[in-house]
Design brief:
By secondary structure, the chain is mostly helical. The protein is built from six helices and no strands.
């Protein structure tokens, strides 16, 4: 039952992504550039997280500990900036459905590679014909969304 709730929550949160992309695309029209819109979006997100963290009772790690962390740990923020900016740039060109369909297909393809190899310290989940067929179906869905 708990897994069902987590999956339902993931579906709901996933529904926020096309809303975010569409709103950020509109934001870009006010700032006349996708990078400016991304900056404002991340600034608002950062301020939101600062406020939320003020209510969390756990302390932040020390600067000493942060500087000892491996560099690759911080790449997630860079990838997030590329993702949000790309969404703002691509939604007007190919539409929200095609963009997110292609994005999910790409995520699944890379996820299978990460799982199969156990990259980034995740547990190994071997690739299979059925998992690869699922990704192929996702790419087929993108084709159908974009074509029709």
């Amino acid at each position: 039952m708990t897994t069902f709730i987590y999956i339902a929550l993931a579906i709901i949160i996933g529904g926020f992504i096309p809303i975010q992309g569409s709103i950020n695309t509109k934001l870009a029209s006010y700032f006349n550039h996708p990078l400016r819109a991304s900056f404002i979006s991340f600034l608002v997100g950062t301020l939101t997280l600062i406020i939320i963290n003020l209510f969390v009772k756990e302390s932040l790690p020390s600067f000493e500990r942060i500087f000892r962390m491996p560099f690759h740990i911080f790449i997630g923020g860079i990838l997030g900036a590329f993702f949000v900016t790309s969404m703002i740039f691509l939604i007007p060109k190919i539409g929200t459905a095609a963009l997110l369909g292609a994005s999910v297909a790409g995520q699944m393809l890379v996820s299978i590679v990460i799982d199969h190899r156990g990259l980034l310290e995740v547990p190994v989940h071997p690739a299979s014909i059925l998992r690869l067929a699922g990704v192929l179906l996702l790419f087929s869905g993108v084709y159908l969304i974009q074509r029709f």
